[in-house]
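Tutorial handout. Part one gives the primary structure; part two gives the three-dimensional structure as tokens.
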Amino acid sequence: MYHAESFAENGFMVYLIGYGGSKPIPALERLPKVELRYLPEPPAILRSLPFVLLAPFKIIHQVSSILRELLISVGEPPEYILVQNPPSIPTLAVVWLIGRIRGCKVIIDWHNLGYSILELKLPKTHIYVKIAKWFEVTFGRVAYAHIFVTEAMRNFLVQEWDLIGEKVVLHDRPPKHFHRCSAQEIHDLFVRLQAPISQYKSLQDFLPDSTPPFSTLLTDRKPLSDASPTPTPAHVRDPISATALTYENIQPPRLRPDRPALVVSSTSWTPDEDFGILLDALNQYEKRARELSEAANAKKLPKLLMVVTGKGPQREEYMKKINRLQADWHWVRCISLWLEAEDYPTFLGSADLGVSLHSSSSGRDLPMKVVDMFGCGLPVCALNFDCLPELVKDGKNGLIFNNSNELTQQLELLLTSFPSSERLNELGLSLRQATSTPGVSHFSQNEEWCSWDENWNIHLKPIILRGIRV
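Part two.
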């Protein structure tokens, strides 16, 4: 979606082709040169089949629907076809074919390796895995340009697959509107989220007096005096609570001193993200917070509200486990929310700490969720894997853990004495300085932090402009 926005802002007519299921980023609905085209889902009857039977039928359905879009629905031959990989099958072969039929230049955006994801479901020796790897090498080797999300990905593919075409590392970066949120923004967001949050009965006794519009889980707005609410006309009343929004001499929203620490993990609930690590850490945090609350003269841990965003196949399984555990928890609550594109950056900018469970099936990609968190000035505890140090510098912009015990220790280190947590505040300040100091490299070698737009214009725009037909 960010690539589509960048192409459109540089004068291209852009067709964004993909599956529905969630709203696109607001810019794509606003820009006149972007047309969203949705592929049909496979027939529902096929989804009940086992994976080994479903896969061939799903591929046939995908091939026919993508060919129809690229050959018929998109009338004039595109200058470029940019395809994200994975998924590899069938898209790499389809765009390879269309490129030759219609004279389009193919750009492959290498986010991960498709066959390595398949290895999470099937043994490496399985015939499907071997076919998937052959397919990816054959149809991904040659393109006008290859974009890589890490140096490790580029080095591996150039050396092992001998890629042909322009090659550029384009580390993911957040859009420029991602930022730390004010108390007013946090208050407004949690008023809007009252409906989905109120469905979790476990939160009712977690923090008293958190009823919008004057109080939420994180904020409140109290009158300066004992004045009663000023009557407010119905047409300016809060649409959720249907109550008057104004007091005479009311204070602006503030962060509650008794608020829980808001910790967020953005996940797709897939096997390459070990949610069990987080579950174990939350259970250990509950026990540790209980111990410290009963100890004399000990620094205390705050209540912890863990919010897991996203959709995916393992969500229901893990949320059932969580609900059984948190029936006996006093210090920890864990809920799952789906956030629309316009609310997601505000939520990250409202949180106190992020957790990344991404482990990478190939070991050569980086979690976009951490990039988003950094864009909002949010420190991160991230699960370790091979190329993570390209993004997360342990002790500077986040902490790296290897197991649930280490994650528990990091939660205690960062949240002790919250909201006046010295180590958390130091980490947040260091991160915000790293992402806002121009001309200084704080992340990848010789590359300073910048917004998506700046990064795209520096690294990819010159390659795009060179290839335009005259």
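Part three, for discussion. The chain has 17 helices and 14 strands. The radius of gyration is 24 Å.
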